[in-house]
Amino acid sequence: MNKILAVIMLVLFTGVSVFGQDLSGDSKKGETLFKANCTACHALDKKLVGPALKGIYTTLSSEGVSKEWIMKWIMNNEALRKSGDKRANDIYKEYSEAAMDVFEGRLSDQDIEDILTYVNNPPEPKVEEAQVEVSVKQNTDTDSSKLLLVSFVIIGIILIITLFKINTLVKLSTKGTELSSLESHKIKNLSEFYRKYQGFSYFIISILLIISLYGVWAWLMGIGVDKGYEPDQPIYFSHKIHAGENKIDCQVCHSGAKYGKVSEIPSLSVCMNCHRNISEYNGKYIEPGKSKEFYTGEIKKIYKHIGWDEENQKYTGKQTPVKWTRIHNMPDFVYFNHSQHVVVGEKTIIAGYNKKNPNQQIDVVCKACHGPVDTMNVVRMSNDFTMGWCIDCHRTTEVDMTNGYNAAYFDKLHEKLKLEYGQDKSTITVDAIGGIECGKCHY
Fold first, then answer.
1. CB-based contacts of 31, cutoff 8 Å, min separation 6
2. Which of 2, 236, 346, 417 is most buried, judged by most C-beta within 10 A?
3. How many CB atoms within 10 Å of residue 242?
4. CB atoms within 10 A of CB 15
5. Which CATH class is domain 3-120?
């Protein structure tokens, strides 16, 4: 627990007078200290591990709490409890014997004064710039839509007038004896056209047959290729917020990517490592069409599925699985090991990708296959993931020869390639070590 818990608890259980004691701390410094030391267990307006702290000093004054006792509790609540202080031990039992951190040597008396000043009367939150930007963007989009609609209406009217005029001209041109002459030369059905223009008909049929065969072939080659697929999920999860705005490393959630074949979908327990204390969204970034309330609502879905009682800060034991929609699904006859690429090939995959894509540089190996995930609000399949796509990568990606194992293991192969291709052949690509052999991926 945090120093703030100390403050609140002593407020509720203390009986020493503080009337006439004014807070003279720096609220701005107090906010910084509060966020650094207290937010793991406390919020201003709601109960977490400890009680809500907004207006705590006012409440503390009405209950009669001495500032000296507060300092002792925050500095070293453990020592205060061991001294036999009844109030300190009552607070400890009240909050399920959840011991607060000892801040002696970490916080000064002035630090505590600053924190109390901030939590007692925190400044009203400013309207986020991101929200203003979203509002402006939405208004701009609305104006653009109206302009586009008006343009289509005008074009439609022009087309109708043009068609009317053409129809009038056609009627005028077919009046009189010329109509009978035209009718006598008119081809009335497809078979008559085929007999009259047999050679041309063969040509057309051949072209149509080739196009049809190509269409069937293209359709067959597209089976299982779902590039651009981005399904809606039962819980809205923005990678842009987590990986982009908050810079959370991919492997914090997808730990299996480094140590195993499958990167795995993180369990809700992983989500709760952070969202046990982050129950509301207060970030600056808001996706167009969304709101802070929307993101907060999605956090509540996590609580519902995992059975988290937010009010009492404990698990109920009632859980329901989340039916995620899978995006990347490797066929059963294909072997792919994430750790082999994330650990062994990390350096050269990143280098090879950046060389081939000078205008789209990456800093994380995951992006080579999954695209710029840190910019995606909804995750989508960014590449084809076909056999040809994999083989092309193996033919251009170098083996990391700075790795001690690879340098020793492929030493003879390296010399052989130099003899075969000349001394300038100083690199070994994955295909040279069996990266395109059938048995490497199909077993």
1. 118, 122, 123
2. 2
3. 18
4. 10
5. mainly alpha
Q: Where are the domains of the chain?
A: 3-120, 127-174, 190-223
Q: CB of 149 within 8 A of CB of 81?
A: no
What's the residue count for the chain? 443
- Helix, coil or strand: residue 398: strand
Q: Collect the ranges in the chain with pLDDT lower than 70.
A: 1-22, 60, 64-65, 125-145, 169-189, 194, 420-426
Distances (CA, A) of 157 to 41, 160, 170, 314, 320: 65, 5, 20, 65, 56
Does the model's pTM come out above 0.70?
Answer: no
H-helix or E-strand spanning residue 215: helix 198-221
Q: What count of other Cβ atoms lies within 10 Å of the Cβ of residue 110?
A: 13
**pLDDT (tens digit per residue) in 347-405:** 999 999 999 999 999 999 999 999 999 999 999 999 999 999 999 999 999 888 887 77
Please tell me the distance from the alpha carbon of residue 49 to that of residue 33, in angstroms, as a whole number: 18
Identify any residues that bridge with 107 across adjacent strands, giving them in sequence order.
104
